[in-house]
């Protein structure tokens, strides 16, 4: 409320700077088309949305609608055919691979459906890995222990992924995504390989972490239960944003 009053009182110029201060991700007219035989298929046809600092946003839509493609692009793992992805005001869509790797390491944590942990490393070592990639303050092992404690795995530091349950592996992956203290955590179907109870545990963990850390969480999901935990849902239909549901994401698919 105060902010709205301030914006009205100080005019349009400040309105823009106040608004942009809180936008951690600004996705502008993203398209993605890929060759398929002699044709090209248009997977994303012009997606735009903004995500504010500290928001928990779900990306929903039917299978094949382009959620994973979109997540890969906003995480800087894939290039769009056209459009911009501004992270803290900087376009990552056309960045060189070297610079992009640094942005991913510092600003974005990623969680995958299939956990994607390194099988030969222990839980603690998996969480330490991103801290050896860029320059980070403090001791990687102390940070990894702290994060594994935060996700309830202080008793599993020395276990390898094969010695952990699915829910535990996903909690290690979440700890790893948080290790470099990124502003944004992006998760693609993080509960997709878990049973209902473990899925619910991972989800409440994400909600707790969001409350404790103030980080932005962007989660692609089929699961209406996941979407209902989010502040709002961005629905992808036919390669476009169908609607943005600000009512807590109670949507049926
Ligand atoms: N490398 C590729 N080459 C050609 N088509 C692709 C490629 N990758 C994805 N697609 C197609 O793009 C569409 C979107 O795929 P995507 O994986 O983004 O969907 P999704 O919404 O994540 O689906 P799901 O809910 O099943 O995970 C699909 O029709 C898929 O077949
Ligand atoms: Mg997918």
Automatic annotation (TrEMBL):
Residues 25-253 form the ABC transporter domain. It holds the Pfam family ABC_tran. GO terms for cellular component: membrane protein complex; plasma membrane. Keywords: ATP-binding, Nucleotide-binding, Transport. SUPFAM superfamilies: P-loop containing nucleoside triphosphate hydrolases. SMART domains: AAA. One of its GO terms (molecular function) is ATP hydrolysis activity. PROSITE patterns: ABC_TRANSPORTER_1, ABC_TRANSPORTER_2. PANTHER family: ABC TRANSPORTER ABCH.1, IMPORT ATP-BINDING PROTEIN. This is Putative ABC transporter ATP-binding protein. It comes from Dictyobacter vulcani. The lineage of its organism: Bacteria, Bacillati, Chloroflexota, Ktedonobacteria, Ktedonobacterales.
